[in-house]
Amino acid sequence: xxxxxxxxxxxxxxxxxxxxxxxxxxxxxxxxxxxxxxxxxxxxxxxxxxxxxxxxxxxxxxxxxxxxxxxxxxxxxxxxxxxxxxxxxxxxxxxxxxxxxxxxxxxxxxxxxxxxxxxxxxxxxxxxxxxxxxxxxxxxxxxxxxxxxxxxxxxxxxxxxxxxxxxxxxxxxxxxxxxxxxxxxxxxxxxxxxxxxxxxxxxxxxxxxxxxxxxxxxxxxxxxxxxxxxxxxxxxxxxxxxxxxxxxxxxxxxxxxxxxxxxxxxxxxxxxxxxxxxxxxxxxxxxxxxxxxxxxxxxxxxxxxxxxxxxxxx
Length: 314
Ligand SMILES: Cc1cc2nc3c(=O)[nH]c(=O)nc-3n(C[C@H](O)[C@H](O)[C@H](O)COP(=O)(O)O)c2cc1C
What we know:
By secondary structure, the protein is α/β, with parallel strands linked by helices. The longest helix has 28 residues, at 255-282. It has helices at residues 14-28, 50-55, 57-61, 95-102, 104-110, 126-138, 158-168, 184-189, 191-202, 223-246, 255-282, 284-298; strands spanning 3-8, 32-37, 81-86, 88-89, 92-93, 114-121, 142-150. Helix 1 runs parallel beside helix 9, helix 4 packs across helix 5 and helix 10 (223-246) packs antiparallel against helix 11 (255-282). Helix content is 48%, strand content 12%. Strand 4 (88-89) and strand 5 form a beta hairpin. The protein has 2 domains: 3-222, Flavodoxin domain (Rossmann fold), CATH 3.40.50.360; 224-294. The strands form 2 sheets. Strands 2-1-3-6-7 form a 5-stranded parallel β-sheet, sandwiched between helices. The structure holds flavin mononucleotide. Residues 10-12, 14-15, 48, 53, 56, 87-91, 120-125, 162, 166 line the site of flavin mononucleotide.
């Protein structure tokens, strides 16, 4: 029997549902799973009032996370494996996860441990995962696997369906667009990772430092989106500093500059993203080798291969 720490925070319940699918086979196999749900001292609203939604932007990007309530376990509790499940807020890890990874308790819990990250978001998680890698390494953890779940809609459709979902709580199909969020079938299929992990833990594979979840289509990177995301991340860095120069989260005096950022963001979404996707599509024969290299690199360590899908079918 192995001891597994799973860290979770979810507003709509989507990330908790996926996490639940991964945990169930681990528990069924007799492993001891502790699910730690993060609770910010001041809860983030859901659905999000629009002003609060944009006002959270600078602190997400600058990793300035408000504190959490004390964890339900002591920081020196021994674990064989840690699974960090998170969602993306503004191309960064959601603030509760940032708070956990910056806290003395969180850092102690993952120090020296093999760590698996699981992200569920609209579709842009690459920059957030870079930040996660850095925070995990700073705390002395070893990242061995990464799983990514993204929304079922086309990347452009989700620019409408995801904000509608987080601003109103409505997730259903709308204007002929698919429902917001990860598809129910993808969520159900997340069970395969738990089955494979249970096997891996039974064979002490977590000690090897090698990924345990290859061959299970753990991540599929759209390298075209990666290029837009990189440009967005750079701009977010500048804007977040600028807004913070005008005031703290919740203060009226930073609202005008925040409004300017919103105008910028909308312009970016309706012009730069489609144009960049169009240009990449036009030049795809030229870009193909580069995009394929980038895709393979960004899909590390668990990859998009499928050779174990049959073995661990739910
Ligand atoms: C403030 C905020 C910012 C978000 N920014 C992003 C983002 O930059 N990229 C992305 O793919 N998803 C983004 N999302 C969507 C979330 O990652 C996630 O899919 C959604 O909030 C549901 O997560 P839940 O499990 O907490 O309910 C954002 C959501 C919120 C609330």
